[in-house]
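Predict the holo structure. Ligand: iron/sulfur cluster.
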Amino acid sequence: MDVSRRKFLSIGGAGALGGTALGGSTLGFDLRAAQEVKQQLRIAGAKVSRTICPYCAVGCAMLAYTKKKDDGHTELLQIEGDPDSPVNEGRLCPKGATALELGVSRRRVPYPMYRAPGQANWQRLSWEEALNRLARNIKRSRDNTFITEDADGNTVNRCEGIAFAGGAAFSSEEGYFATKVMRGLGVVHIEQQARV
Ligand code: SF4
């Protein structure tokens, strides 16, 4: 089988797969090295940002590579494990390794969806409709479940009908802000997925 270097680099992902299956070297090429060359070409000149995997409480650190396109939009090119992190030392589990798809997958739903109680179908909402609905529901739940005094007559001023759970992708500032908003509403059931 005659495969030129140019053709090999163009098949990229398939080459990496073959490298794994065939022990990293075949057809006269070092497949892993070729894959690395291709990745370097792809991310050359890209901006590197540090972030945290949003999927689970392990909190693996990631490097995200982005580049500004000619039309002004920023393109997410690659996400990989951060070798400087003491948590994951550059590694990602299979789930974290697919995190790029969170940003670029064509199957991603980029707008709010709503399924009414008892209904099987989802309907698309505008962001304004979704945020208004959210605000109304929060107010109604808070009004209905706010407690000013406990059973012993102590002033407590708390809302027991709303719970809030933060995600592992929260930055410190986002976590601080979310906690402030929830405490301001009197919410006491506040939890955070991450333990980092
Ligand atoms: S890479 Fe895997 S183990 Fe690490 S935080 Fe993400 S999902 Fe959890």
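The first strand starts at residue 25 and ends at 26. Residues 126-192 form one domain.
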